[in-house]
């Protein structure tokens, strides 16, 4: 990687492609896969971690196996979009583990939430007990997922 953060050379990109598909690959095997010896490979890997390019390593857990297979997307419209209202909503959402992701949107609503629960009954309870208590919500629209066709966490590198 050159001196500028964000400029990756081909060896860095090869490392990133490999570890994003298999974060548990041993360094010796990683080095073999990308065509470097162990020490330079490890130095590059550690630098990518230190620079925040690699933010962490995670297990890919099947939500159905841990009773979190019910997935909904919720559009949220806030009562206003002043900085104070947005900040209060953002802070509240960060503390709710059922909300897997939250994106501020442009268009006809303010946020799109991805929420997982065990089933429709659990979501209904979550909606009444948690979602409805988030600050400054004027309106929500819930969209249950019928089938997940594709989900990927891998970036194009």
Task: Give a concise summary.
The chain has 157 residues and is an alpha+beta fold. The protein is built from five helices and four strands. It has a four-stranded antiparallel sheet with strand order 2-3-1-4.
Give an account of the 3D structure.
The structure is a single chain. This protein folds into 2 domains: 1-60, Arc Repressor Mutant, subunit A (Orthogonal Bundle); 63-144, Alpha-Beta Plaits. Helices cover 35% and strands 19% of the residues. It has 5 helices and 4 strands; from the N terminus they run H-H-H-E-H-E-E-H-E. The protein has a 4-stranded antiparallel sheet. A hairpin with a 6-residue loop joins strand 2 (99-104) and strand 3 (111-117). Helix 2 (27-34) crosses helix 3.
């Amino acid at each position: 990687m050159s001196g500028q953060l964000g400029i990756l050379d081909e060896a860095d990109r090869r490392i990133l492609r490999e570890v994003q598909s298999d974060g548990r690959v041993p360094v010796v095997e990683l080095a073999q896969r990308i065509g470097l010896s162990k020490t330079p490979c490890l130095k590059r890997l550690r630098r990518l971690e230190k620079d925040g390019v690699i933010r962490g390593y995670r297990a890919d857990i099947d939500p159905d196996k841990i009773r979190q297979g019910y997935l909904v997307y919720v559009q949220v419209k806030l009562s206003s979009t002043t900085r104070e209202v947005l900040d209060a909503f953002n802070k509240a959402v960060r503390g709710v583990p059922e909300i897997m992701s939250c994106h501020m949107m442009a268009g006809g609503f303010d946020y799109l939430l991805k929420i997982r629960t065990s089933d429709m009954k659990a979501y209904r309870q979550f909606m009444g007990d948690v979602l409805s208590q988030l600050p400054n919500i004027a309106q929500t629209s819930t969209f249950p997922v019928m089938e997940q066709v594709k989900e990927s966490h891998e970036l194009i590198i």
